[in-house]
Write a structure and sequence with these properties.
Helix 1 (28-47) packs across helix 9 (268-281). It is built from 11 helices and 16 strands. It is α/β, with parallel strands linked by helices.
Length: 366
């Protein structure tokens, strides 16, 4: 989906590249929400006169959760003359895109990926709206301790993202008397995983795995095992946020806490954008859709203030002051984070209400 080109005779458009997972094995539903937010914001910018009279054009590339494909897309978008690249949901994919953007000198505003080490070395070219994984997952660990869950099992798959999350949980829980055991879902069937949970005396199982496979079969197996009736299933990466989760799992998918990056109450801007997004999506907007809208709001403000020169955009990150859907957005240097970071992204631990699975309950906020 690209924003329609400018009409004949109008000034040339200002192009933004957008990286979005739109096909499998990417998380397609997250990609659809991200693109809805990006596209809505672009259309609103153009309805308000564009960038100094020039229309903003979104040039979309599907990453399909493939790091190499994302890096190649950054090359292509740079050659097309985009002022900046935006988007991406999957952390490992965003890391590949960020590395390529840094190498080419193309500004990249990452919408939704949280991996702390988004680039190997500090860079001036990359900024991020989503909170760093270390911050969000520490808040999740605090929730677990507060809920009396100290013996934690994590169902994992090989991935830099999952390994990083496990390390954050283990380090943070160790200081609070908690333990973490890893269960490799490539080596264990869902039934064998249930046996391991019983053997370890786990009080919580965290799904650090892909969706729908193997997350859905694991949830069904655990829910169906009477020995595990008291165990808490959690999904810090946010799988239960989307309608597909509830549609596939029904009542089994409720009561599974996850991280969501929304404030307790949206302000007037967030309420308005949320209503528009719901009309576009045909369902409630996830936090990922709001991240998409905020991404374009930041870049449009930068383009109006500093022009479309790539170096000027990158130099502007520390001067950004934009009212986003989820609060005022400013970037700063955060210890241990290699990119410009929105440091105060709101973070909640939320689940679907077992009594009313379409309703979310806020369990903890950080």
């Amino acid at each position: 989906m690209n924003t329609p080109p400018s009409p004949s005779g109008a000034e040339s458009s200002v192009r933004l590249g957008a990286l979005v997972p739109l096909t499998r094995p990417g998380w397609v539903e997250a990609g659809r929400h991200l693109l809805a937010g990006l596209d809505l914001a672009v259309r609103e910018v153009n309805d308000a006169g564009g960038i100094d009279g020039r229309p903003l054009e979104l040039v979309v590339r599907d990453t399909a959760a493939d790091p190499e494909r994302a890096a190649a897309a950054v090359d292509e978008l740079a050659a097309l003359g985009v002022a900046a690249v935006a988007g991406e949901y999957h952390s490992v994919v965003a890391r590949a895109a960020a590395a390529r953007a840094d190498a080419l000198g193309v500004p990249f505003l990452c919408s939704s990926a949280v991996l702390d080490a988004l680039t190997e070395e500090p860079t001036e070219w990359v900024a991020r709206l989503a909170p760093a994984q270390s911050r969000g997952w520490r808040i999740y660990a605090d929730f677990l301790v507060g809920a009396g869950r100290h013996r934690i099992a994590v169902a994992t798959q090989p991935s830099v993202y999952w390994a990083s999350g496990t390390r954050v949980l283990r380090d943070h829980l160790a200081d609070r008397g908690g333990t973490v055991v890893e269960l490799d879902t490539n080596a264990l069937t869902p039934e064998a995983l249930c046996d391991a949970l019983v053997d370890h005396g786990a009080t919580a199982l965290l799904l650090l795995v892909g969706h729908p496979e193997p997350a859905v079969p694991i949830v069904r197996a655990v829910r169906g095992d009477r020995r595990l009736a008291e165990i808490l299933i959690g999904a810090p990466a946010g799988q239960p946020e989307f309608v597909e989760w509830a549609a596939v799992l029904g009542e089994d998918g409720a009561g599974i806490p996850f991280l969501r990056y929304l404030p307790e109450r949206l302000g007037p801007l967030g309420e308005r954008v949320g209503k528009e997004l719901r009309e576009r999506l045909g369902e409630s907007a996830s936090f990922v859709a709001f991240e998409g809208w905020d991404t374009v709001a930041v870049l449009a403000d930068v383009l109006r203030s500093h022009g479309a020169d790539r170096a000027a955009i990158a130099e502007s990150w520390p001067r950004v002051a934009v009212e986003g859907t989820r609060g005022p957005i400013r970037f700063s240097r955060t210890p241990g984070i290699s990119v410009w970071q929105w440091a105060w992204t709101p973070i909640q631990v939320v689940d679907r209400d077992p009594v009313e699975p379409d309703r979310f309950r806020i369990l903890h906020a950080g």
